[in-house]
User: What shape does this take?
Amino acid sequence: MQGYIAVTTITIFIILVIIRSIQLKKFGIKVFKFGKMDKKDFIIPPFALLLLYVIISNVFHFPRLGTELFYYEVVSWIGVVLCFGGLLLFVYSLLSFGKSFRVGIDEENPGSLITTGAFSISRNPIFTAFGMVLLGEFLIYPNWIVLVYLILGFWLFNRQVLLEEQSLVKIYGEAYTQYCQHVRRYI
Assistant: This one.
């Protein structure tokens, strides 16, 4: 059962981003700015698809990649709780973001600085949500490949956050600096 929750969580994440992108496109907002400032970002989608395959292959008994490091039922259920928590935080973040939601850095049309809702508890609630889900996926499927993804994912999230923070200081100046003094980077 936990495996189905793992697949469902990733699927819902993807669907929510697509739906939000379509909604914002109606307002003339181009959501995907991914890879515009850093061309290396384009190596991420193939690796994300591989992670999706690793999770799906475990649930639907396709040929598996990697080996399981350990398995404890209670740890797997903790992973489920993290997946649900990450999904709820992601939805709350999307709602809080409003029309400012972007995938990547948008210095040309950034939208307004959001400091309320999910952004009042974390400057990066979407990355925090992704991190929670990735950790949850690992606890559900403690596979060495998923562990590598977890480590690289946290590193990539932090790298992207640092790039975004530099950009946000340029865009919003003192307002963003003040916000940083009151709200943590993650949670």
Remarks:
- DSSP finds six helices and no strands in the chain.
- The longest helix spans residues 144-172.
- The chain has one domain: 2-182.
- Helices lie at 2-25, 44-60, 73-97, 125-140, 144-172, 174-182.
